[in-house]
């Protein structure tokens, strides 16, 4: 997730390992109600199966890593058919799932829904910076949700607590995903979906793992 998240309506957040907010009178939301909330709210929310999660502020390492990746990746795709977006870009997975990835890239014909102008539907690359409260979700259910996006070619997980980048690349022939780990600062992440190379030394530039 973009930032540590909390459920806005209802209870049962133990699966995400985050603090519970006080349950509100309204427990479920329809997609239309969620989109209306987003249009009128200063806080971003992710939406899964009628449940809404407020996105709260990120820690220092998260912000540094996000900026480093955006800078390096943005420079490389500047003159290509691809366009990158930060964590304010909403992505629609399907009718009852909306998310805000940390970094997302779409290429060629970049498609937004006509009735939801801020909802991107054809990303080729999604990157998430892991936090303690969201790592299980980002690795599990959320990755499964992302796999249903036909255009998605690559999913990247970046640790903010240690030097570790994990890459999942879709195999078009059998719809499996190839996993590669990059645990060393002298390695380079090769993004197959957008033909870019990101040295881990740049991803973790000025990141102090002893302070979060």
TrEMBL record:
One Pfam family in the UniProt entry: Uma2
Name of the protein described by the UniProt record: Putative restriction endonuclease domain-containing protein
Domain Putative restriction endonuclease: 32-193
Matches recorded under Gene3D superfamilies: tt1808, chain A (3.90.1570.10)
Originating organism: Desulfamplus magnetovallimortis
